[in-house]
């Protein structure tokens, strides 16, 4: 049976989290035709070995970047490898809850024109520094882009694969998906989702470096918004 949903998980040095998260995804989606796609973004720990072992135990698609190219590049690689019409993304650290995915998929299928559901971590389980930096970034982005999304940094999102592949691809684009989908004419909503504390490993994508590149990216997306156009195409009789 062809999958309805592809779960794409970018990882970098997340060896201890791989097997537990795969088990959770499979349990949460037991009644849904799905596939799991992992992308190893240049890990230097046991991530490649564990993914290879997991693929022998149950269906699992995995790809590897020879060198780290960033989370957006890993997500794009995973979506290109995916085969289902709907994509759900999860962070590989286990803080997103796969049990939230079925409800997101049901809502997406029931509302025509809805191309992206973004998770909103209303009870975020992170350090004070991460929460503050995320709150500041979200407020700045919302003021500049008017994307009506309170938490674009949440790794749990669900969207149409074909709509994503029509978006302009660039580094850090995953942080601006709501604005990019809106620019393309799609409808975007946010829904509260569960967020859990990290129990294994350490974060591999820093807070300060993301903030620094985020300003440049924000200006670039604002420029794209002003230059965008959506022609109404008619087929002659």
Supply the number of helical segments.
Answer: 8
Taking pLDDT < 50 over at least 5 consecutive residues as the criterion, the unreliable ranges are none
Helix content: 40-55%
**Strand portion:** 15-25%
What's the count of strands?
7
Class computed from helices, strands and strand pairing = alpha/beta
Give the overall average pLDDT.
87
For the termini, the CA-CA separation is 39 Å
SSE pattern? EHEHEHEHEHEHHEH
The neighbouring-strand order within the major sheet is 3-2-1-4-6-5-7
For the report, how would you describe the main beta sheet? 7 strands, mixed
Overall shape: globular
CA-atom Rg in angstroms: 17 Å
List the helices and strands and how they pair.
Layout: E1 5-11, H1 15-28, E2 34-41, H2 47-57, E3 61-65, H3 71-81, E4 86-89, H4 101-110, E5 114-121, H5 128-145, E6 157-160, H6 161-165, H7 177-183, E7 187-193, H8 207-227
Parallel strand pairs: 1-2, 1-4, 2-3, 5-7
Antiparallel strand pairs: 4-6, 5-6
């Amino acid at each position: 049976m062809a999958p309805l949903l592809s779960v794409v998980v970018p990882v970098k040095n997340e060896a201890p989290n791989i097997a537990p998260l795969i088990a959770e995804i499979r349990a949460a989606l037991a009644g849904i035709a799905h596939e799991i796609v992992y992308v190893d973004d240049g890990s230097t720990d046991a991530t490649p070995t564990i993914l290879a072992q997991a693929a022998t135990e149950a269906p699992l698609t995995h790809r590897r970047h020879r060198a780290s190219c960033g989370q957006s590049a890993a997500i794009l690689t995973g979506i290109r490898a995916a085969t289902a019409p709907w994509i759900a993304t999860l962070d590989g650290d286990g803080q997103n809850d796969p049990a939230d995915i079925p409800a997101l998929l049901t809502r997406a299928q029931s509302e025509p024109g809805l191309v992206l559901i973004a998770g909103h971590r209303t009870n975020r389980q992170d350090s004070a520094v991460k929460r503050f930096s995320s709150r500041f970034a979200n407020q700045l982005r919302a003021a500049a882009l008017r994307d009506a999304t309170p938490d674009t940094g949440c790794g749990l999102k669900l969207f149409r694969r074909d709509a994503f592949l029509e978006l302009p691809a660039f580094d850090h684009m995953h942080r601006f998906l709501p604005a990019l989908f809106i620019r393309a004419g799609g409808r975007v909503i946010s829904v509260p989702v569960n967020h859990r504390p990290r129990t294994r490993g350490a974060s591999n994508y820093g807070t300060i470096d993301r903030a620094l590149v985020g300003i440049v990216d924000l200006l670039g997306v604002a420029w794209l918004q002003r230059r965008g156009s959506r022609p109404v195409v008619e087929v002659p009789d």
